[in-house]
User: Which sequence fits this backbone?
């Protein structure tokens, strides 16, 4: 069989999930008990849809929005670009000019905002982050035809507002958001291939994913 990952690097962008320790609840309980060292078991798993590294889809904001089963599989995989915004402060906007200067964003490419916030995951500072300006998001959606926005922080919404302009605009386009990424510093090249697949569950507004980056090996 052809090795599709020959001369490729794979970087895991997914936070380890710890049952009983997550901000958004996760519990794993065995349904059966083993009587010895071996024997099969099954588990009851309860989790909030936004636990860990996860994607959010239009149903998260719109009552008639698409769920994780409605959106095409191709939306959650494809060419991506990592843009370095680690210098941005809490509650500071990422502007259109800054976005355009950060890298050569190709039409249809997934855009990953590297904000340097992965270390805040599972801490009291987990929601302390910059945000994407409305103008920048509009340009990504209309000019660059972006349909998946990712970040290593907990969100992308304009801070200090109650009308959720970025949620309204992005999910109106049947786009998705990938939040709480990690290990972005391990990606060696600005452009890479992203895979972050949710479970196709009817009525699900968000879902934990196993997100990975695939890039050319330097060896």
Assistant:
């Amino acid at each position: 069989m052809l090795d599709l990952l020959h001369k490729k690097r794979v970087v895991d962008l997914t936070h380890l999930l710890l049952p009983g320790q997550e901000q958004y609840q996760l519990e794993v309980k065995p349904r059966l008990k083993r009587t010895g060292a071996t024997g099969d078991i099954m588990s009851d798993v309860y989790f909030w849809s936004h636990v860990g590294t996860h994607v959010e889809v239009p149903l998260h904001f719109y009552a008639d929005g698409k769920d994780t089963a409605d959106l095409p599989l191709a939306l959650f995989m494809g060419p991506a670009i990592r843009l370095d915004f680690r210098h941005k402060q809490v509650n500071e906007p990422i502007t259109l000019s800054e976005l355009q200067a950060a890298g050569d964003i190709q039409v249809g490419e997934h855009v990953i905002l590297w904000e340097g916030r992965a270390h805040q995951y599972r801490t009291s500072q987990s929601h302390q982050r910059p945000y994407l300006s409305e103008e920048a998001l509009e340009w990504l959606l209309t000019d660059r035809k972006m349909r998946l926005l990712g970040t290593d922080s907990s969100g992308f919404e304009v801070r200090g507002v109650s009308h959720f302009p970025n949620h309204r605009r992005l999910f109106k386009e049947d786009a998705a958001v990938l939040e709480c990424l990690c290990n972005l510093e391990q990606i060696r090249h600005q452009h890479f291939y992203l895979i972050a697949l949710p479970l196709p569950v009817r009525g699900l507004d968000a879902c934990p994913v196993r997100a990975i980056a695939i890039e050319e090996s330097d060896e």
About this structure: Residues 134-142 form the longest helix (9 residues).
